[in-house]
């Protein structure tokens, strides 16, 4: 089969002028770095919008050869403040994937509470806090983390940070992690969750403004791994998010980014639920290219670090489109061993 025009998607999270913090836990790009990377990417392909992809999926028109879709996940206010002006200046389309619960209810997603705690609390103190609240809540935490396994899993981190991430991401169920982190965050932030949420996430007006540009997609009502929820719970996450976004933007968004984006979070069951709720295409975090649009609910996507202009690109600008392998996650995956464990990096 002849390969179709390739679509490469690229995902961004934090874009802020400074990443200074007590502890290095939040990674991303400054607006200048973001602008430089967008310019680098503009030299290797053609940027496409949500509507372009939608029309291509529907067979109404084809995408340009070497298409690039830029996505920004989690509805972070800094994306509106610092990435959106760069995109507007360069005339580049993008899709912002929004969680609606943090915006409507002024809460913080667990994944962001973890980032904030890690940036403000030393890893050994964070571990002690987790054990203390774990004891109080009756959640049994693994005492002896296998240091070698933690090191292999998180090779770029210090041993303490690797232990912390291992404990949080790989030994707890999502429900246990939520309860524990809620307690830790409450203790640390002294009831400031609503105020912090206001500074971290976009507000309704900002989402409406991006909606006016048809640059909005769904990331679930809460930031939960759809593939690891029951079909009913996954459906609720999509319908709530969809209904709220329709009110905020005036149109029904049709694009989804699976929260967390790892393989189990993007199961065929989650894709089927999404399709039933009117989702027309969806991005995973499978690091691959999309050689065709035959499986629109499993479009692969790179992290911004992985592509030209990023910190550790897989291939050079010249070779990127020729080298990116085809997406495969549309094939069914085995059931997870632990019902609701999920890797902890946000997506
Ligand atoms: Zn996310």
Topology, element by element:
Blueprint: E1 7-12, E2 14-15, E3 28-29, H1 31-42, E4 46-47, H2 50-57, E5 67-73, H3 77-90, E6 95-98, H4 100-105, H5 110-120, H6 123-137, H7 147-153, H8 159-170, H9 174-189, H10 193-200, H11 204-212, E7 216-218, H12 231-249, E8 255-257, H13 268-276, E9 281-283, E10 302-303, H14 320-323
Parallel strand pairs: 1-5, 1-10, 2-3, 4-5, 5-6, 6-7, 8-9
This protein binds zinc ion.
Largest sheet: 6 strands, parallel
What's the order of the H and E elements?
EEEHEHEHEHHHHHHHHEHEHEEH
Q: What's the CATH topology label of the largest domain? A: TIM Barrel
Q: In angstroms, what separates the terminal alpha carbons?
A: 32 Å
Give the integer mean of the pLDDT values. 92
Q: How would you describe the oligomerization state of the chains in this entry? A: single chain
Number of helices: 14
Unreliable residue stretches: 338-347
Strand content: 5-15%
The percent of residues in helical segments reads 40-55%
C-alpha-based Rg, rounded? 20 Å
Number of strands: 10
Please, what is the CATH homologous superfamily of the largest domain?
Glycoside hydrolase/deacetylase
Number of domains: 2
Instruction: Write down the CATH class of the largest domain.
Output: Alpha Beta
Listed once per kind, the bound small molecules are: zinc ion
Overall, the morphology is globular
- The second-level CATH architecture of the largest domain is Alpha-Beta Barrel
Instruction: Label the structural class.
Output: alpha/beta
């Amino acid at each position: 089969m002849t390969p179709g025009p390739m679509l490469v998607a690229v995902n961004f999270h934090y874009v802020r002028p400074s990443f200074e913090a007590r502890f290095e836990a939040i990674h991303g790009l400054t607006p200048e770095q973001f602008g430089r990377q967008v310019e680098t990417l503009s030299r290797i392909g053609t940027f496409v919008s949500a509507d372009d992809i939608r029309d291509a999926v529907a067979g109404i028109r084809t995408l340009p050869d070497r298409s690039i879709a830029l996505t920004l996940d989690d509805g972070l206010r800094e994306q509106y403040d610092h990435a959106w002006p760069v995109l507007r200046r360069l005339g580049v389309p993008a899709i912002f994937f929004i969680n609606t619960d943090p915006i409507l209810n002024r809460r913080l997603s667990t994944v962001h509470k973890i980032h904030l705690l890690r940036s403000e609390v030393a890893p050994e103190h964070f571990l002690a806090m987790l054990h203390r609240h774990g004891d109080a809540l009756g959640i049994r935490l693994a005492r002896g983390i296998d240091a070698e396994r933690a090191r292999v899993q998180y090779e770029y981190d210090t041993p303490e940070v690797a232990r912390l991430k291992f404990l949080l991401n790989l030994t707890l169920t999502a429900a246990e992690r939520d309860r524990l982190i809620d307690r830790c965050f409450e203790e640390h932030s002294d009831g400031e969750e609503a105020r912090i949420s206001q500074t971290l996430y976009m507000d309704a007006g900002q989402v409406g403004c991006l909606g006016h540009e048809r640059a909005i997609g769904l990331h679930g009502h809460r930031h939960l791994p759809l593939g690891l929820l029951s079909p009913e719970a996954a459906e609720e996450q999509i319908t709530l998010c969809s209904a709220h976004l329709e009110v905020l933007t005036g149109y029904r968004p049709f694009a989804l980014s699976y929260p967390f984006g790892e393989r189990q979070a993007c199961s065929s069951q989650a894709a089927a639920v999404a399709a039933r709720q009117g989702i027309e295409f969806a991005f995973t975090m499978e690091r691959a290219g999309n050689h065709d649009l035959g499986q629109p609910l499993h479009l692969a996507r790179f992290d911004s670090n992985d592509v030209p202009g990023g910190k550790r690109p897989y291939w050079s600008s010249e070779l990127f489109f020729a080298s990116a392998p085809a997406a495969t996650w549309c094939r069914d995956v085995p059931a997870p061993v632990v019902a609701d464990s999920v890797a902890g990096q946000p997506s």
